[in-house]
Amino acid sequence: MLKKIVPFIAFIFCCLASIAQSEDSITIKKISDEVLTNGKAYENLRFLCKKIGQRISGSPSAQKAVEATFEMLKDAGADTVYLQQCKVPHWVRGIKETGFIQFAGQKYPLHLCSLGNSLGTGLKGINAPVIEVSSFKQLDQLGAAIIKGKIVFFNFVMNPTYVQTFRAYSESGISRWQGASKAASYGAIGVMVRSLASNTDNYPHTGAMKYNDSFPKIPAVAISTNDAEWLSRKLKLRMQLTASFTNTSFVLPDTTSYNVVGEIRGSEFPKEIITVGGHLDSWDLAEGANDDGTGVMQSIEVLRALKATGIKPKRTVRAVMFMDEENGGRGGDKYLELAEKNKETHLFALESDAGGFTPRGFSLEMSEAQISKITQWKDLFLNYGVYDFTGRSSGSDVGPLRKIGTACAELVPDSQRYFDIHHAATDVFENVNKRELHLGAVNMAILIYLIDKYGL
Amino acid sequence: MLKKIVPFIAFIFCCLASIAQSEDSITIKKISDEVLTNGKAYENLRFLCKKIGQRISGSPSAQKAVEATFEMLKDAGADTVYLQQCKVPHWVRGIKETGFIQFAGQKYPLHLCSLGNSLGTGLKGINAPVIEVSSFKQLDQLGAAIIKGKIVFFNFVMNPTYVQTFRAYSESGISRWQGASKAASYGAIGVMVRSLASNTDNYPHTGAMKYNDSFPKIPAVAISTNDAEWLSRKLKLRMQLTASFTNTSFVLPDTTSYNVVGEIRGSEFPKEIITVGGHLDSWDLAEGANDDGTGVMQSIEVLRALKATGIKPKRTVRAVMFMDEENGGRGGDKYLELAEKNKETHLFALESDAGGFTPRGFSLEMSEAQISKITQWKDLFLNYGVYDFTGRSSGSDVGPLRKIGTACAELVPDSQRYFDIHHAATDVFENVNKRELHLGAVNMAILIYLIDKYGL
């Protein structure tokens, strides 16, 4: 008898599962239609970019962005909107940087900008022979004998053969992050870092650097990829070149800022929290459209889409605009701190911080069992362009929640265009496509919907 | 004994298959690295767009494009480069179109352009009350009583809920293609068609229309999506509006043009031909960057990549720049005609004509057995972003080869941005991303490599 019952039960189970999937397909289509037809992320992003613009941590415009997204969350239909106060660093670029290369009595101006957190040269600037290195190993080999008193030019090219551009960014990114202190350890007086960009143009790309307190804190600037190519060609001719630059960046005392949080309270398990977020701060050279205005607006859109389609989440869904991702991650740290203090249960947290490009997948940082559960839903995403669940990391704002066991994930959009504009003056609203942005929000909402419905 | 032999043979077979796959992975990586590092498609496209620009069938610039790509194919390493002469239509836009809406004594100018193949109004233009329809059914219902003597405004909105934008294009596209004759059948004197675009802006999008010889040939223009939205709002207020427009487009006698063909002769089966192509002509409002400069340059790049990586194809691989896809498809027809005349064996033909955006898949128009064979290689494409083999159509230039049983396919790039710029003044080089373009060429080369190696 058992022999007959087991297949029968299996059959019933399959039928139920398939009915559930088909119900889910219908709800998911409803979400998608709503976002693709009435989505507000694009127009909200236009406001953030064009009416507020750059919003570096600690700046008055970051405060304006807090206020604007507070209103947007209310308009999206959040039950509650509130702020989480946190202290953030306050780095200031100062006056427009200048720099040039000098040889044979001529000056050749460079397109450059201070790296974030770099200290300044003072108004007189610095001037020294320039040495190119393309790896830290090469720097170590040259040592103090060659490096002392020089300006080091880190020419770490982003590897074009990596199909996923983030891999190349991570690899070359150490030049920006650690280069200054590495060079200072051998007595360099300043560094010029090749911009971390996939393309070649005249725009320098800023981004965070960090000093190692064991060494002198020397000034650090990024030069454009065109300038880096040109400079490298000149140096290969064994020309004796002198570099000069002036930057007046400095650090003010930490200041007060906020995460902005909007919630739809769960109807069955209000104490179980699902977070979806992006970061509200940006670098100061442009509008921070793709980094990360898009992630912020997609997160608000997830809330709006749930509300507009009449989905009442069982769990509490929170859209969080994290402050200070670029410059220290204080918002993400504060979010964890409050979660621990308030003894909150955080089931799942999703971040979008890789640009507003067409979505391709989700990167999942969680247990194997949780990964299996999500990948079982794979087919439900296929019609919406998401197929790739192979990544195993999550974002830096939700990442701290790993400490309390939260399953974390990140949207994986197409990465080909991101590093053309990342942290440069070209990261503007015009480089975001409405349909691509909204399709990201569609897939984020689908994942949130499924996890809310079935748990994790 | 057999019981033991069968699994053993199966085991050996699996080992061999896995060795072959791993050898293929290595070659494929070589192709990808070559294209992503040294690819010429992007710079070739810059030349086509910026030095030649628009190249509508029959125009002097189309001839320049023939000459330029002839040279590019030689530079790419083709053994033989030659032309295939064909007659092409020669439609001319005439002087810049003008048009406006008149009500309450005021004139409101429109952003508009002639549709391709439309006849002109003459310099005096036409002027009549305007009637909006959003479906052919609605047009039929209004009938001659209402339509006679009017200008019909076809407001067929591209459906935003379709994730694949081509689906929305096909659905709404009938307004452009058939609208004029449908309206003329009820006595309309002209038509204004809402531009087939996913976004809303001020650029009109041109494209082919076709007259039905049974009805008067009335002039047809496209208006921008912003104008269409505005006009529709006004008409909904039941305002009595008059539309006027002037276009002076006309048709000259057919003229001589060419497909451009470059070949690498097969080392084992030179008589079996594998074609890869795009179309060289474009509409006349812009540079035809994504339509279809990208497909042309990717096809040349496939040849270049095979040559540069030292792959010697067994079969003859041909890159074909088809002429006149936009305006009649004469180049594609000629290609079939010559294939039949010369009794050529065409194993496979691949087209790229959906923009130079990140590739997502291939659409396969061939036998089920052939589809199975290709989808067995699916995993080899995954690292290069291609996962979707569900489409079952191919392009309009290789399509004619179906008549002689050729397996046909088309590259499927991401479709979200295409109809923002398609056939409009915004289809320029700046809207093509180098990495996306080259990644398309990588996947095209992989497919050609596998089919050449294993047959189909």
Low-confidence stretches of chain A: none
CATH architecture heading of the largest domain in chain A: 3-Layer(aba) Sandwich
- Considering residues with a beta carbon less than 8 A from a beta carbon on another chain, report the largest interface and each chain's count: A-B, 26 and 26 residues
Q: How much strand content do the residues of chain A show?
A: 15-25%
The protein's oligomeric status is homodimer
Give average pLDDT of chain A, whole number. 96
The percent of residues in helical segments of chain A reads 25-40%
CATH superfamily of the largest domain in chain A: Zn peptidases
Could you say which overall geometry of chain A the principal axes of the C-alpha atoms support? elongated
Ends of chain A: how far apart?
A: 35 Å
Q: What structural class is derived from the secondary structure elements of chain A?
A: alpha/beta
Q: Name the CATH class of the largest domain in chain A.
A: Alpha Beta
Return the domain count of chain A. Answer: 2
Helices and strands of chain A, in order, run as HHHEEEEEHEHEEHEEEHEHEEHHEHH
Structural commentary:
- Two copies of one chain form a homodimer.
- Chain A has two domains: 32-91 and 253-454, 3-Layer(aba) Sandwich (Aminopeptidase), CATH 3.40.630; 95-248, Glucose Oxidase, domain 1 (3-Layer(bba) Sandwich).
- The longest helix of chain A has 37 residues, at 2-38.
- In chain A, the strands form two sheets. An eight-stranded mixed β-sheet of chain A has the order 3-2-9-5-6-7-8-4, with helices on both faces.
- By secondary structure, chain A is an alpha/beta fold.
- The two termini of chain A are 35 Å apart.
- In chain A, helix 7 links the parallel strand 11 and strand 12 (315-322).
- The first copy, chain A, has helices at residues 2-38, 41-52, 60-76, 136-147, 165-184, 225-236, 289-308, 330-341, 368-375, 378-382, 418-421, 434-454; strands at 80-92, 98-103, 106-109, 112-114, 126-133, 151-154, 190-194, 220-223, 242-246, 250-264, 269-279, 315-322, 345-351, 359-365, 407-413.
- Helices cover 39% and strands 23% of the residues of chain A.
- The A-B interface holds A 32-33, 36-37, 160-161, 163, 165, 198-199, 358, 360, 383-385, 387-388, 414, 416-417, 420, 433-436, 439 and B 32-33, 36-37, 160-161, 163, 165, 198-199, 358, 360, 383-385, 387-388, 414, 416-417, 420, 433-436, 439.
